[in-house]
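Journal club prep — side note

Before the paper discussion, L.F. wants everyone to see what a predicted structure for a comparable chain looks like in token form. Sequence:
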Amino acid sequence: MMNLNGYLNYLRLLTKHIIKIFLFFVIMCVTVKPQDNADTLKNDTVFVMQKSAWGAVLRSAVVPGWGQIYNRSYWKAPIVWGVGAWLVYNWIQNNNYYITFKNQFSKYPTDNPQDPNLLYRNFYRDQRDLFTIYMGLTYLLQLIDAYVDAHLFDFTIQENYQLGIPTIRFQLRF
């Protein structure tokens, strides 16, 4: 049972943590306004994204790699296709081995846990299941890549020739 002093110390500690978390969120939510200068006043236009992020995701969901082509990242599409083809090939190969050893084990069933047919059957089933997980992860990663790439399509780095420093400009829309 906790005594009164222990309970009060707990409340003080909890209050300190709540205040720190609140201040952290307040600081993170503060908007920063850029300085007004001639460049900002000249470029007072509305930003319109050239690529639709969800359009890229839907394209990649229908045909893996299509979102990368839509985002003009042409070099990424063959990588997606190659990794996908390699994963499908290994899944088919492991599934065929699994079926072979499953049929062998059903023809000659034993109670021996060290039976080679049983061990190979379990091994190839596990490998097939792992490749299923890898295919799912690869599919999700290419969807995420298409989404992020569409958001960063308008990201530019331009040299400020007056000051001689590179300028990074990008905008995020939620």
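L.F.'s comment for the group: The helical segments are 4-29, 38-42, 53-62, 66-70, 76-107, 116-151. Keep this in mind when we get to the figures.
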